[in-house]
Design brief:
Blueprint lengths: L2 H4 L1 H18 L3 H24 L3 E2 L13 H10 L13 H21 L4 E2 L2 H25 L13 H9 L1
Antiparallel strand pairs: 1-2
Helix pairs in contact: 2-3, 2-4, 3-4, 3-6, 5-6
Length: 170
């Protein structure tokens, strides 16, 4: 019996606190909130589709049969707040981010299975589906985060750009 399998509410509480802290310190909290909401909802729907296919079975936290458990939304929120911080280096590397997603996504599910939080009906098929999905999910999430980046300071104007505007005004 592990906390991952039987005490999911504590993890969701932590995810809410961490997400709130991230938004509190973001340069543009509304932009970061859009990322968190978009990635969390999209990710939970993806996980629900995989669960609905029958490849994954969750022992707890499922409120509606055939959907992902509620606590996965907390994990998606934690993932979303890393996109413009820890994972920023992947933004300009879509091929690398696809490869990272293809390996890290299924690896996280294997870890969850080892903790008893998820069971594979058909391990090989589930891992192929997860790898394929995550090869698209990570680059797409990084693109969304880039569009609504609320953390990274804006780029300064090019040198001399202010001088040209001043000359035109005069």
């Amino acid at each position: 019996m592990t906390a991952a399998a039987h005490h999911a509410a504590w993890g969701v509480t932590y995810a809410l606190i961490a997400t709130a802290g991230h938004l509190l310190f973001a340069r543009r909290p509304a932009s970061e909130a859009r990322i968190v909401i978009t990635v969390t909802v999209s990710g939970w729907l993806w996980d629900s589709a995989v669960a609905h296919s029958g490849l994954l079975v969750y022992p707890n936290g499922v409120f509606l049969k055939g959907t992902a458990p509620y606590w996965l939304a907390g994990l998606w929120a934690l993932f979303a707040i890393q996109l413009n911080t820890l994972l920023l280096w992947l933004r300009a590397r879509p091929l690398v981010s696809a490869l990272v997603g293809a390996f890290a996504g299924p690896a996280s599910f294997r870890a969850g299975a080892a903790l008893g939080a998820v069971h594979f009906k058909d391990s090989a098929a589930a891992l192929v589906v997860l790898a394929t999905g995550w090869a698209f999910i990570l680059p797409a999430a990084l693109a969304i985060a880039s569009h609504w980046d609320g953390v990274t300071p804006p780029s300064p104007p090019p040198i001399g750009a202010g001088d040209m505007n001043d000359a035109r005004a005069g």
